[in-house]
Specification:
This protein is α+β, with helices and mostly antiparallel strands and 328 residues long. Helix content is 27%, strand content 37%.
Length: 328
């Protein structure tokens, strides 16, 4: 059955399937005993009528990926997972997100690419049991199974990592300009491609940083200890080490925002990502003005702007998802 069965299964998993899709799935499951078994396992995830342990989840993935590997005309399969399904798989908890299952036939390596849209945060459990909270407008790419050497993932955006300790298999987070290597630790990494800097903030453990100049990875490791933050400036190619309160930089995980001497331009960028809005600051002077404030009660965007308005020289107008900020 070549009628894009993976798209049909994707709609089925996300509860968007039609009666015609159900007929196609019924026909597909009778073709092979393996198909019937896979559908039974996937149904367990879809309806959440029982918990799925790691071995069962891995069995599902191996079966799905093996089929994708054999689909010569399909380089990837795109799937929207619904909240309940993703939570059942223990890959994404509490949100909906966009997944790409990717198969590299040349190297025989299969990876998962996970994207959290603006306004959405995603919790991920990696193959080794490590946990990642992925911030809005962020993408994490990782293998279905980690290799025999290092555990490597690729990040574009911001994420909070809680890494399972494994001395034999160091954990490496790669960004476009920085590599973070750890054994077992908790840290926040902000590395949006569009930002001028990459910020690594350590909560627990020990991490080493190495920079990518475009030509080679510099082997002089910079060690980061708890309560320290490393700021890598992409343009200047310089590293600055600061002593900070780590909770300030991981507050986004629980909907908290801490602004410490931040410019309005920086604040606007953070709010745009967190609330999926567009903010137009119609004054160059305002963009560079500084504000400090803590929002720790899960305030909405209007409540945050209202507080800022009371303490600064701004006024704002909200029209749908667009916000215009001007001087008073």
């Amino acid at each position: 059955m070549r009628e894009d069965i993976w798209d049909v299964l994707a709609r089925y998993l996300s509860r968007e399937s039609s009666p015609k899709d159900h007929d196609l799935i019924d026909a597909w499951k009778t073709q092979e005993a393996k198909n019937h078994k896979s559908l039974t396992l996937l149904n367990s995830a879809r309806f959440r009528n029982k918990k799925i342990d790691d071995s069962t989840r891995l069995e599902v993935f191996e079966d799905v990926f093996s089929k994708i590997e054999n689909e010569q005309s399909r380089p990837y399969v795109k799937i929207w997972f619904a909240v309940a399904i993703a939570a059942s798989f223990a890959l994404l908890i509490g949100t909906a997100a966009l997944f790409y299952f990717l198969g590299d036939r040349k190297q025989g390596m299969q990876t998962v690419e996970m994207y959290a849209p603006r306004g959405i945060k995603s919790k991920i459990v990696l193959p080794d049991g490590s946990q990642v909270m992925l911030n809005s407008d962020s993408k994490l790419t990782y293998p279905v199974r980690f290799g025999t050497n290092a555990r490597e993932v690729l990040l574009n955006g911001e994420a909070y990592f809680t890494i399972k300790k494994d001395k034999q298999h160091p954990f490496v987070v790669k960004t476009g300009a920085l590599e973070v290597k750890v054994l077992g630790t908790k840290f926040n990494l902000k590395a949006y491609d569009s930002d001028d800097v990459i910020a690594t903030t350590l909560d627990e453990g020990l991490v080493s940083l190495s920079t990518n100049t475009g030509k080679k990875i510099e082997k002089k490791n910079i060690l980061l200890t708890p309560g320290k933050q490393a700021i890598w400036n992409k343009q200047k190619r310089s590293m600055e080490l600061l002593k900070v309160d780590p909770y300030i930089y991981s507050g986004w995980c629980t909907g908290k925002y801490y602004f410490k001497a931040s410019t309005f331009d920086q604040i606007a960028h953070t709010l745009e990502i967190g609330f999926n809005v567009t903010i137009d600051i119609q004054s160059e002077k305002l963009k560079n003005e500084v504000f400090s404030g803590d929002f720790v009660r899960s305030e909405n965007i209007e409540q945050i702007l209202s507080v800022i308005k009371k303490n600064t020289n701004i006024k704002y107008k909200i029209s749908g998802s667009k916000i215009v900020i001007t001087e008073k």
